[in-house]
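User
New here, explain this?
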Amino acid sequence: MGDIHRLRGFKVDVRMDEIARVLGYGSRRIPDRVAGMIADVERSAGGLLSTACSYRYLNNEEFAHSGYLKCVSDIVLCLVTIGHRLESRAEEYKLSGELGRAIILDTYGSAAAEAAAEAAEAVIRKEVAAKGLKCSSRFSPGYGEWDVGEQKWIVPALEGKTIGVCLTEGCMMVPRKSITFAVTYGEEAVELHDGNLCDVCGLEHCRFRRTG
């Protein structure tokens, strides 16, 4: 396998309108009390992030055992995390009865993890472009037909423990605010899915859903 590339402590852009959307407000006016809690969380949450990622370039012989990736040739596999501190603080809020703050902080963490994945993808895209090649959009295990059970080889292949990420028996990552994804690259990159991620996800009533 190719060398592991790691990044730590990189900045992420967490959009507060995205947090409001996930909380269910969308274009509706946010009540002053909730807006105040969101502002408080925004001021402190950034200091709870410990962003890190590891990624690796692989050829099809190195992931031939993957049921989902078998039809593509070259990929970059990536794991990103925001660390455990934000989740620990959200749990403290729950235990102290501050459920509103706990929910807002947890939502901020989900948005931060997504922003971290976007930042890592941008780094990979820049590297691929520097080689004169094209890069597909990212896609993650658990979406569409990509079995989440493939995390069992993906996380070890990316040496997840070196950035503080491990896997449960049920293939959930710890810390929870972690994401794995793959992109293909080449002279003509092959997309790993059609449409946006929500279109291929079976969780139709997910509060994070962007369509339907």
User: Anything to note?
Assistant: Residues 5-193 form a domain with the NADH Oxidase fold (CATH 3.40.109.40). The helical segments are 16-22, 32-45, 85-95, 99-130, 151-157.
